[in-house]
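Could you please consider the sequence and fold following this short note?
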Amino acid sequence: MKKLIFSFCAIGMLAFISCQQKDQWIDLFNGENLDGWEIKGAEESNFFVEDGILVAETKIGLPNTFLATKKHYSDFELEAEFKVNEGMNTGIQYRSAQWDKDTTTSYLNGSLEEGMRDWEAGKVHGYQYEIDPSERAWTGGFYEEGNRGWLVPLTDNEAARSAYKPEDWNHLRILVDGNHFQTWINGVQAVDIHDDNASTGFIALQLHGINREEQVGLRTLWRSVRIKEL
């Protein structure tokens, strides 16, 4: 009987600890190194830590690559601060994966033109919080990388389009609960949508490939990247 009571107590304690962990903020970036992360999309990329900041810097010869969490996440709240150079397009992936074979999907591009796209095996795909410092200003928009493309462009959300601060630190928030997705940029809601295409996956920071010398050395800076599982 004592062993049985002990077993029930142990199970209860583990459940309590698990609930506590799910209700706590966890730093995804420790400010010192890239422990807990791995490169996706190529064998190498150009992510590094400088003065406590996670840096993604463009470099000729690199394809579109991602720094991904080794752990997969389903339902969560995520916050981060970022600063991006003008001319740099990037984003943060979530519930993401890699195609296990060559795949063709329907696709809505940045001009909101529909078509079909081919994706090679190994290509990263999944939901993306768009970071767009161009005049279009769709930062916070809902994009599906390596798959359907634009799901919620910010064409009709002037408040969110105006919330982004060029060449300055910005705060993003992502809330994912089941098939309900919400995003914010500097406290202004950008997206509130339901979608059922993916239920879990890694989180990843994007570094776009470049093909022009004037694009070399463009940076995205990240800090205070943290997550709370729901």
In short: The chain is about 10% helix and 45% strand.
